[in-house]
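Bit of a strange request maybe. I'm writing a small parser for structure token strings and I need a real example to test against, not something I typed by hand. Could someone generate the tokens for this chain?
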Amino acid sequence: MTETRPTTPGLERRLGDWARARLSPGIADIVMFVLKQGWACLFGGLLLLGLIVTHVIWQEDWPVHRYDAMFGFALILQVAFLRFGLETWAEARVILLFHVTGTVMEWFKVAQGSWSYPEPALFGVMGVPLFSGFMYASVGSYMARVIRVFDMRFAPYPPFALTLALAGAIYVNFFSHHVLPDIRISLFAATVVIFARTRVIFRVTDGDRWMPLPVAALLSAIALWVAENVGTTTGLGSIPVRARARW
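Reply from user aminoacidic:
Good idea to test on real output. This should exercise your parser:
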């Protein structure tokens, strides 16, 4: 299948020309950095906006459940992103992996009683509304788009086998810490050690800039924590007291 040509580069060039013509170089870089970050997380931002709006206006007696409406909204967004070139098909395949993996993780955590979804949903499996997978997909969307938008490179990158082993250990701990010791602190430390020398090299307007990968990961984690709390506040899911104690 022929991939749709992204519209992002043309829009970025026009925004960059606008910023450079009206702002000093330092201010232009800051403005463009914020604009590019917002553009990269557009999918997740629109989902969060949908959660907030539906939380405010939705009524229990409406014929469509709120979770199902959000599922339809997320599907429309995904189709629109592909149709208008905001994501390529290659990126969509990566995002699909995030969606499937996230849904499996949700099934497991709901079955373990770590959290639950308080509202009904027609489009749901094993107590998990299908919309929830799009929240994980939005993370994949951000990662795929931000790498392209900022023309990111990662150097020096650790041995790929080592990163696979670390990722495997993280997932094993996610599923096993209910019955085995939780080693997430050790995994955090291992992540910092493995990627300590790795730089994220990126381009805002002109010239390359860089940031240590652990710092970039920390900033991304903070943003995800904020988004997760917005989701919880707007009724996406609820966490039992006993689960809060474990987490």
